[in-house]
Amino acid sequence: MSPNATTIEQEGVLFDNLKLVDRGRFREKELLAALTGAKYPARNPVQNIYIKKVEKKKMFGYDKDELWNTVVKTYNDVSTYWQYDPAKFRAQPVYSRDYPPCKYCE
Predict the structure, then answer these.
(1) Alpha carbon distance 10, 14 (integer Å)
(2) Which phi and psi angles does 69 have, rounded to 5°?
(3) What DSSP state is assigned to residue 83?
(4) DSSP per residue over 13-69, as a string?
(5) pTM score, two decimals?
(6) Distance CA 20, CA 48 (A)
(7) Under DSSP, is residue 75 helix (H, G, I), strand (E, B) or coil?
(8) What is the biggest distance separating any 2 CA atoms in the chain, rounded to whole angstroms?
(9) How many Cβ atoms sit within 10 Å of the Cβ of residue 34?
(10) Position 1 pLDDT exceeds 60
């Protein structure tokens, strides 16, 4: 826990037996409601994703080179389905030994 937190709820949204999938359907609306309706809600359930790389350089007035995480690319407002159409994504079979078909197998 952070030094200022006095309860576990202050650390983030606490789920107690939240059903995420029902009859093969991901319950995204219910999850977003739980994330945003808590006493201490999630700041941004649909969030930005940052692609980073580590670079050795001087920053913030440091005298010597140090390793820093540098943002290379940002994907804004990423949801569960990334950049795919949710209906098409859900219609695909679940990844398994047989799907997608192996191009290089005998």
Answers:
(1) 9
(2) -80, 120
(3) T
(4) PPPSS---EETTEE-HHHHHHHHHSSSS--S-SSEEEEEEEEEEE--TT-SS-EEEE
(5) 0.43
(6) 22
(7) strand
(8) 59
(9) 19
(10) no
